[in-house]
Design a protein that fits this description.
The chain contains six helices and two strands. The chain is mostly helical. Strands 1-2 form a two-stranded antiparallel ribbon. The longest helix is centred in the first third of the chain and has 16 residues, at 4-19. The relative contact order is 0.12. The mean pLDDT is 79.
Length: 127
């Protein structure tokens, strides 16, 4: 993962025309359209190249640009720092066991594999 301040600097480069007070509204909208359509190389491209993978090169969604602009306007440069995941170190689905317990695999009244195969073979012969 790239340095958080490098990511914040890259994000500021992407939104700089959108927060430039010297530009009129039309120029800002044109800059937003350009940023949202033009593929850019995202931070971490060098690391991906070292691992033999293609760098991430895609346009920045408008919603992301709006979110970065709002973060910059409310918190300044520090608002552009990447936020840590709130669920870091936890399983993706809370409450889901990592491995099924024995009680999940055998329930009362469940057929054993041998009894289900005999019943399925008898049902195919009767049809």
């Amino acid at each position: 993962m790239p340095d958080p301040y490098t990511v914040a600097a890259w994000r500021f480069e992407q939104i700089a025309p959108l927060v430039d007070a010297s530009l009129d509204e039309g120029a800002r909208r044109a800059a937003l359209r350009t940023r949202a359509r033009t593929p850019v190389e995202w931070p971490g491209a060098d690391e991906r190249r070292r691992r033999g993978r293609a760098p991430k090169k895609q346009p920045i969604p408008k919603s992301t640009l709006y979110r970065w602009v709002a973060a910059y306007q409310s918190d300044g440069y520090l608002g552009l720092l990447p936020k840590g995941r709130s669920d870091r170190g936890k399983p993706r689905h809370a409450g889901t066991p990592a491995t099924p317990s024995r009680s999940c695999t055998s329930s009362p009244g469940a057929r054993s594999p041998s009894s289900s195969s005999t019943s399925s073979s008898s049902s195919t012969t009767t049809r």
